[in-house]
Amino acid sequence: MNWTYVWLIVAIGFEVVGTSALKETAGFTRLVPTIVSLVAYGFAFYFLALSLRVLPMGVVYAIWSGAGIVFISAIGWIVFRQVLDAPALIGMALIIAGVAVINLFSNSVAH
């Protein structure tokens, strides 16, 4: 099993939790969501750093940010009832396609 991708998935998970909690901090005026957000971001960056030991920085960041955008948008839609119009959905589909192209065809990912 390649732990590098596990660490990256865990980093993405913590980033999504941190960003979701960030919405609830009300500008860092609410203590519990603020603590959740800061702790989650700390873990996100720790696990992101672990994946950077093996994978190239540009590839890691593309996957991390792309997946984060899609997951946060989905949470915004489901939990916070935020509207996603057709251009937003098309853009996210292109992000997913870009991450897939990197992982499937780029020699940069080989390690």
Automatic annotation (TrEMBL):
Principal location class: membrane
Transmembrane segments: 31-52, 59-80, 86-105
Cellular compartment(s): Cell membrane
Entry's Gene Ontology BP terms: glycine betaine transport; xenobiotic detoxification by transmembrane export across the plasma membrane
Keyword field: Cell membrane, Membrane, Transmembrane, Transmembrane helix, Transport
GO molecular function: amino-acid betaine transmembrane transporter activity; antiporter activity; choline transmembrane transporter activity
InterPro entries: EmrE-like, Small_drug/metabolite_transptr, Small_multidrug_res
Xref: SUPFAM superfamilies: Multidrug resistance efflux transporter EmrE (SSF103481)
Pfam families: Multi_Drug_Res
Gene3D superfamilies in the record: 1.10.3730.20
One GO CC term on file: plasma membrane
Signal sequence coordinates: none
Membrane topology recorded in Swiss-Prot or TrEMBL: Multi-pass membrane protein
Protein family: Belongs to the drug/metabolite transporter (DMT) superfamily. Small multidrug resistance (SMR) (TC 2.A.7.1) family.
Protein name: QacE family quaternary ammonium compound efflux SMR transporter
Species classification: Bacteria, Pseudomonadati, Pseudomonadota, Alphaproteobacteria, Hyphomicrobiales
